[in-house]
What does this fold into?
Amino acid sequence: MTPQGNSAESNAGDGGSVAGGHPSSAHGVTSSVKVRQLTSADLLAQRLDKPMGILGILFLLVILGQLLASEPGLTAVLNVVGWIFWAIFVAEFLLRAYIARFQAAFWKRNWWQVIFLLVPFLRFFRALQALRFARVARFARFGSVLSAGVRGSRSAGRLLTSRIGWVAALTGVVMLVASQLLYVAGSYESYGDALLESAMSTITGAPLSAGDGFAKILQIILALYSVAVFATLAGALGAFFLRAETAELSERENIKE
It folds into this structure.
């Protein structure tokens, strides 16, 4: 075979290797771009943590107001405010999804947020109560309270960095959500009674006076939560005193040296 032939075969082989390596290189570039897009979406979420956290707490209070409001005018205002907050939450989520270019990885991370963003739509089924679909209407109100409660608890975590402060804020959110659920379920005729007993059960694990099935289930959940809170506070206080003792010992050793 002539040198020219060898050269031609060598060039053809080089061309084949380049062509064969090109898809792998393109895949690497694409993966890098996707990672950057997901990172940008996460950075946006971090920047919006505080304002969205404040809105989450306010949204929980608005849902509470909707349950307690009796005047049609006030109820209408609270409904409008609630839907405005919900629209902001949806816009923030869609903006992050757009930055991430609606990747499958983004949806896998945030699928639970989609559920809680869709839950408020169930409130449209309240109109079915006039058609004797009371269970659907009650489920819609349950969904609204739970959605607001989850967002409120996440908001407390965003706004507070101290463990004790976060536990205190989370406990307040749990008390509000539990009292609203008991009131919506009809376990208590007065919201004041529901709030009082929810607070006592959340903090001390005291039993609820309501005897229906939902109240008993919620009582078990609140009792478990009170145990977890006590353990968390005990651990935080223990760590505080341990750090203080360690600092004091190190200071004494420095003085001796």
Summary: The two ends are 85 Å apart (CA to CA).
